[in-house]
Structures are given as C-alpha cells and as structure tokens.
Amino acid sequence: MEDRGNSSTTTLLDLVNLFNEMLDENDFNNAERASCLLLERFSDQYIAWYVRAIALRLTNRPKEALLAIDHSIWLHETSDALAELARIWQILDSHFRTDQELNQILALSFCREQDANAYKNVYFEVSGVCNAKCPYCVTGINCIIGRNIEDISARKFVDVDEFKFTINHLITNSIISRRESVVQLYNWGEPCLHPHFEKLLSILTENGIRYGFSTNCSVLKELAPSVLTNLNQVTFSMPGFSCDSYNRIHGFDFEQIKQNITNMVELWRKSGYRGSFIIAYHVYQFNILECEAAAKFASELGIGISFVHASLNGYNLLRSYFDDTMSRDALKKCSSELITYFYKNVKRPANYRCDQFDYLVINEHCELLPCCGVERGMPLYSLGKISEMTLEQIRDKKLNAQYCTKCAEIGMDYFGTAILRRAFGRF
Ligand code: SF4
Ligand code: SF4
C-alpha cells in the first residue's frame, strides 16, 4: 500500500480510491493507514478529513472521528459530512438517538463547547536553545544577572516523536482546538535552530493545527509549501536598526539579518504563505532614533511592524529588579539602556487576573509550565508531562502554581500586560 500511496505524483483521488478499495475488502486497518497518507499530503482538503473521520470511526476511535469530521465541515460543509457527523454522534451518545438532524445539532453544539473550553494561546518551546547574546533575557549568552546554569544545561530541542505524541494528546483531549487555537513554537528559545524544524511544522499541518513563531532571523529557513498552509503569523524580533544596536543586544551581523528577513519574506511568499509577517521592534534608549528606518524597511517589504518596550525577560531577572536584589552593576546597565522611568508608576489593579492563567505553556521536554516566565531551578518549575494530564488537571495545576501569590504581591504578574499596553504602536 505504501508504494501506491507515497509517490509524489499520487493525487487526492488516487488516495481516496485506495481508501475505498480497502473499505470494500473490509480491511479497516489499511484503510486507516490510507487516511493518514491522505492527511500527510492533503490536510487542507475537507475530503481528506472526511475520509479520516470514517477511518477513525471504523477503527473504534469515535471521539477522534468526531473532531476530524468537525474539521472537515469547517473547511467545507457537505451533506455527506453532516450524515457522518450524526453517525459518529450516535456512537458517542449514550441515548442512541436515531434522529439524524438532532444528532447533528447535539454533535455540533458539543464541538463548539469543547472549542470554547480549549486553550487558545499556546506556547510550545520547540528549541530551548538560543544563539543570541541578549543581556536582558534568561537564555541570552550575556544575561546581566548571569545565566541560570541548571536551566541552561537542561535546555535542548524537542524530540520529534514526543512532540507528535503531545500534539495528538492535546487535540484528542480537546486541550487545544483546531478552530480556535494557535500554537506558537517558542518561549525563550530560537525555534529555527531546531534541526528538524520543518518536520515539526508538518506534524502541526497534518493535524490541522494553526501555528506561528518568532525568530531572531539569524538562520535562513527555506520551508516547503506544504507546511506553510497552517502558518498563521511570523514575528521577526529586532533589537534596533543598526550595527551598534545589534552588537549591544543580539550580537549578530546586522546586514546579514536584514538580508535574511528579506529572503525569508520573498521565499515564503513565493511558496504560497498568505499569513502575516511582523517585526517586533524592541525599543531601548539607544535605538529610539532608529525606529523610523526600521518602519521604512518594513514598509518596503510590505510587512507590519510593532514597537514595544524592551524589558527584563524571565521570572528571576524581573524579580531581582522589583525586590531590589539586582546587583548595582546590572541595575546601572538597565537604567542606561532600558526605558524604565514608568516602572514605578505601574499600579496593579487590585482585582487583576493574570493573563498567563489563560495561556498554555509547554517546554521542550513536553512538560506543562505555570507560565512563560518561570525558569528551571525554581520549585515546581515543571508541573509534569502534559501528555499525562486532562484539561481539568491542567487548569487546576496552573491556577494553584506556587509562585503566583508572591508574583501578584509584588505586581510582577501585571508588569507584562502594562508593558504591552504601553506599546508605541503597530503599523
Ligand atoms: S530575547 Fe529572544 S533572541 Fe534574545 S536570547 Fe532571549 S530568546 Fe534569544
Ligand atoms: S501570577 Fe506570575 S507566576 Fe503566576 S502565572 Fe501569572 S506571571 Fe506566572
């Protein structure tokens, strides 16, 4: 079967015919394999999801079948798909109703409820490693408070098989939703350094999950058109628009970075990417006068740009500033480079609910983290393997994470939100 299904000239129709042949022979296991091949090649086609749903139903995986048929209907609604939806719901619902229309209504309302409960904003660190030297980031080689050695030595690239397994777990347990969630492939690492980055993207694409990532643009990536269909947004993080600014922060060759950005925009657009590109320009004291040149560069490329305050990235780094434990030298550096004059005026509203409670953050070991800011070495940094948790367990663990009380007490939980609210603008 592999030979018939895997050739580069195999069409959608060839694979559907192959699937039907398997069904005629009552060979459900091979039919299920044919449906996988369909999704590997044609995951943006509603018919591939329709076939997948039938295969999953016939191999006794009705919950997954329901999610697959719902996705097919989202891509394109057909009467066949609605009939399949009713069939699957009949298996799942303990009432064994025979009213097709009622089964469709109940199934769709169940699916929408699952979407509403799923995490929408997901940060999955696929590369715990970063090659930049940023002094105000826990991962940066020149971090001003020194690097957390325990944290740095445990950093790695996500294992491809474990990533696949984890994504599958998140979908089948409705922790994330195909319609509502976007998986961002970074936290404090450079995703494009992952040696199998494109494979990770193909796993998300085959699973019908939309994704985005932020990159420091030090690595030029060529991506196949097949993995770009589900790419939602690409962010280029920039610490200024001059050699001097790059020397101070990222430590990369500025001219090379500009060239990489230009090439990536051109290459990916040519490959069919229709989503957005945006430069996240981090404003420091020393690069304010470079904003205009950066905006011109973005406009010439036809991409967006947003200006945000550069800040202290990481729980310990930020906390050392707020609880006055940062060394004098580090503090002097902060006050000469970061824009900090408004920090003392940031007032946390008494009833503030941390934004991070609604974010799902997973590290490169596929462990659930309380939020984006925590670092290894902190007690209960990891809340455990996420593939062993249900949605309810995840919510519960996040809401009861150990640091939150102290974090809220000193107003750190509100700080990130306050910084974003002071963004200079987006063009
Ligand atoms: S801020 Fe971004 S580019 Fe800089 S070290 Fe941290 S993860 Fe890398
Ligand atoms: S309160 Fe602080 S530690 Fe807790 S989730 Fe929010 S930012 Fe993270």
- Can you identify the CATH superfamily of the largest domain? Aldolase class I
Strand content: 5-15%
Query: Rg to the nearest angstrom?
Result: 24 Å
The helical percent reads 40-55%
Distance between the termini: 51 Å
Name the bound molecules: iron/sulfur cluster
* Subunit organisation of the chains: single chain
User: What CATH architecture of the largest domain do you see?
Assistant: Alpha-Beta Barrel
The ordered string of helix (H) and strand (E) elements is HHHHHHHEHHEHEHEHHEHEHHEEHHHE
Strand order of the largest sheet: 8-7-1-2-3-4-5-6-9
Model regions low in confidence, pLDDT < 50 over at least 5 residues: none
- Report the sheet with the most strands, covering strand number, pairing sense and barrel closure: 9 strands, mixed
Task: Write a concise keyword list for the protein shown above.
single chain; 427 residues; alpha/beta; Serine Threonine Protein Phosphatase 5, Tetratricopeptide repeat; TIM Barrel; nine-stranded mixed beta sheet; 19 helices; 9 strands
